[in-house]
Amino acid sequence: MSTTVEYALRLLAGAAGIWLVITTVSGAIRSFVLPRSESVRLNAFVFGGVRALFNFGARRANNYARRDRILAHYAPVALVALPIGWLALVGIGYTGIYWALGVDGFEKSYELSGSSLLTLGTTSEGGLIINVFSYSEATLGLLLLTLLISYLPTIYQAFSRREIVVAQVELRAGIPVSAAGLLVWLGHDHDFLNDDAQWLDWEKWLVEIDESHTSLPVLAFFRSPQGGRSWVMTAGFILDAANLLFSALDVPSSRQAELTFKAGVLA
Q1: Which domain holds residue 30?
Q2: Could you tell me the pLDDT band of residue 124, with boundaries at 50, 70 and 90?
């Protein structure tokens, strides 16, 4: 390989490495820090790949309970796989950067990248510029892992608040849960205007789901602790109950029930 060609390849590898590192860090920030829904290709690739594996196993289950137990592990596994993908891409990106900076060979560049990323310190190269990039890679590796770990309590707190209402609706509407059963419970005193406090609680729950599942989309894939429960179905039961109240019962209109229905439609 001529010197000119090798120089051009090193420049190309360095530019591609910088782009890959910036893109990966940007995706991590948009995934957990930015409080709005953003499409991140790496996330779609990781979650799609993990989902394909779990679907493969679920299709071979002989009943719903078995399929539900298999798919219940999907979101946690995908969430753990996500930072592994981040670190792998950052490591590949820095491999190209080190090679562009003059490290001898891709294998040596990869060893230096892995040593820096995982803060092992088993491989080092002299030179101020290479050391600066090595330290920056170690910092990014720690930050990416810390980012996910710091958001795990937030994710599980939002999950817990969501599932509390799911369980409460099941207690009120009976098993199997239905919109009609929910209305029977609401009208136990024959006065639906006394239920505004309950409709207000459900409105807050629907608004919180809209906010939390938009900023942390992974929450949508966490299944309820019990196989017969579903936050999606619970939201549907609440909206169906409100719709039946408006259309099928000859009772005074509840402004709070209307707001709850609107919150569910817009969520």
Answers
A1: 3-150
A2: low
d(CA 185, CA 173): 6
Contact (CB, 8 A) for 191 and 45: no
251, 192 contact by CB (below 8 A): yes
Closest by Cα among 161, 165, 121, 117 to 143: 117
Copy the structure tokens of residue 94. 């820095």
User: How many domains, in total, are found in the chain?
Assistant: 2
Q: Is 29 exposed, middle or buried (0-12, 13-18, 19+ CB in 10 A)?
A: middle
**Does residue 44 share a domain with residue 11?**
yes
Q: Among 25, 45, 29, 149, which residue's Cα sits nearest to residue 87?
A: 25
Residue predicted with more confidence, 90 or 266: 90
**Final residue before a domain boundary, out of 150, 165, 183:** 150
221 and 245, same domain (yes or no): yes
Residues 6 or more apart in contact with residue 53 via CB below 8 angstroms: none
Cβ pair 42, 85 in contact under 8 A: yes
Confidence at residue 91, expressed as pLDDT on a 0 to 100 scale: 93
Same domain, 13 and 103: yes
Residues 170 and 145 in one domain: no
**Residue 203 corresponds to which tokens in the numbers above?**
């409105």
